[in-house]
Amino acid sequence: MSFAIETRDLTLRFGSFTAVNAVSLQVRKGARHAIIGPNGAGKTSLVHALTGSIPSTSGRVFISGRDMTGSSQRARVRSGLTRTFQINQLFPKLTVLDNVCMAILEREQRSKVFWTSMAAERSVLEEGRELLELAQLGPQADKVVASLPYGMRRLVEIAIALATRPDIIVLDEPAAGVPTTQSEAIFERIAALPRDLTLLFVEHNMNLVFRFAERITVLAEGAIMTEGTPAEISKDERVREVYLGRGGHHAAA
Ligand SMILES: Nc1ncnc2c1ncn2[C@@H]1O[C@H](COP(=O)(O)OP(=O)(O)OP(=O)(O)O)[C@@H](O)[C@H]1O
Question: Which Pfam families match (predicted)?
């Protein structure tokens, strides 16, 4: 069986420090798969090694069965793996629709100058509106990004990620910084994305993880400690210990 993402002994070192230690991860196609672990466990480093934003030290990365080890981030996006972009990559003074259209033009490698001066390309606008529907941002299409609540902006990042036509989206703390009153709504929208889209997300909020993930991988000190369904992970004493042992604020539910 080919997985959406498969790693074999993936390792990322920073000097003599091993942030990701021989991780062999398998993410099924269409999964809602969470990576959890205490602070400093290596979750973000694993995301970097998967997406190619930092080259891995050793091991292999397969995307939809293709060996992409050593490929650039851009090549991995072309092979179907994308990640949510940070807020600062949004254009705050432009509308939500324009931001998404920019991302479509970027994919097509067309000039943004052309877009801003001509402000019209029916197919791009149509696709932009479709992507906003997928992210349930239709009503916000013509709002300026800077005027949106923070949680909504995070959804714009997801719509922008969709503009790359991904098979897999990696989300590093998609609800970070979002008030808890909004984070559940964001996760509901993320979970409602098309079922054939594979979603791998890093998340600290255990309530969200247990509610939305179908599969959970627990990282500790750079390595996979265990993996299972939410029911299995919530019963696992070792998982409780790694959280409680660090006195972290992310106590397992
Ligand atoms: N560029 C870097 N250079 C050196 N060490 C780094 C670098 N990036 C991360 N680290 C170290 O790697 C370890 C894992 O960090 P990482 O950010 O991947 O953990 P995390 O599980 O995402 O943590 P958090 O939950 O706090 O975001 C930490 O000890 C961190 O200090």
Answer: ABC_tran (PF00005), BCA_ABC_TP_C (PF12399)
Q: Are 155 and 166 in contact (CB under 8 A)?
A: no
Q: Give the pLDDT of residue 193.
A: 94
Within its chain, how far is the Cα of 55 from the centroid? Answer: 18
pLDDT tops 70 at residue 119: no
- Contact by Cβ (8 Å): 137, 193: no
C-alpha to C-alpha distance for 126 and 107, rounded to whole angstroms: 15
State whether ipTM is beyond 0.90: yes
Centroid of ligand 1 to alpha carbon of 18 (angstroms): 10
Ligand 1 atom 24: residue of nearest CA: 39
Q: Are 131 and 163 in contact (CB under 8 A)?
A: yes
pTM: 0.90
Task: Enter the CATH code of domain 1-80+166-248.
Answer: 3.40.50.300
Residue whose CB lies within 8 A of the most ligand 1 atoms, among 13, 14, 16, for a mutation test: 14
Hey, whose CA ends up nearest to atom 6 of ligand 1? Answer: 14
CA 48 – ligand 1 centroid, Å: 10
Residues of the chain with CATH 3.40.50.300: 1-80+166-248
220: Cβ below 6 Å to ligand 1?
A: no
The share of the chain scoring above pLDDT 90, in percent, equals 70
Model confidence at 218, pLDDT cuts 50, 70, 90, reads: very high
Mean pLDDT for 40-46 is 95
Establish whether residue 48 lines the binding site of ligand 1, counting it when its CB lies within 6 angstroms of any ligand atom: no
